[in-house]
Write a structure and sequence with these properties.
192 residues, four-stranded mixed β-sheet
Length: 192
């Protein structure tokens, strides 16, 4: 009786734990390298995820948004920090983030914005029009940004059938159904 109870408990625990990872490569055609593609699991029917309490960070340093592309889960607050000795402004013209404008602030200060909806928000600076970055708000906590060689890894993905999407700032989006079972590979190719 004791062995049967332990076996049932082990099976129940195994079914509720994350199973592995989703990894692969995104080949980005027509751009310098395959960096900055966001790979993520689309909304999962019947599952909701609480917004993370920890804020994400976009720095403004040497007149550049760092990171250039930041994926976050919907509901995440992003802090925009000015690390330059000049004034910066952060705004987005995109309706999905209410066309926010955080105003202008000096070095050492930060302003924040909460991304409440799924969105691919373009970040711009009214003071420095050459500056451009992106915040990509996705519906699940399962996402990654590709490296220059196109590789990505999303850890702690539960087993199941999911729609996996890819977004890139300059290329057409892609998606496909992927069955995750333990360590699973999914490769993509995107182009203009």
């Amino acid at each position: 009786m004791n062995t049967a109870l332990c076996t049932l408990l082990a099976l129940a625990l195994a079914g509720s734990l994350p199973a592995g990872d989703l990894h692969g490569k995104v080949a980005c055609k027509g751009v310098r390298n395959s960096a900055d593609a966001v790979v993520y699991l689309d909304a999962i029917p019947g599952k909701t995820f609480p917004a993370p309490a920890k804020h994400a960070l976009v720095d403004q340093k040497n007149l550049v948004f760092i990171p250039h592309v930041l994926p976050v889960q919907v509901g995440t607050t992003v802090d925009f920090h000015n690390d330059d000795a000049v004034l910066h402004n952060v705004f987005s013209p995109d309706a999905c983030c209410s066309k926010f404008n955080l105003g202008t602030w000096p070095q050492g200060q930060s302003r924040s914005y909460t991304f409440k909806n799924e969105c691919q928000a373009t970040l711009l600076c009214k003071v420095h029009p050459e500056m451009e970055g992106f915040v990509v708000a996705v519906p699940t906590p399962y996402y990654a940004v590709t490296k220059a060689d196109g590789s990505y890894e999303i850890k702690n993905v539960p087993d199941g059938q999911f729609t996996v999407k890819v977004w890139h700032p300059k290329l057409k989006a892609a998606q496909k159904a992927v069955k995750v079972a333990g360590s699973t590979q999914a490769d993509f190719e995107i182009a203009r």
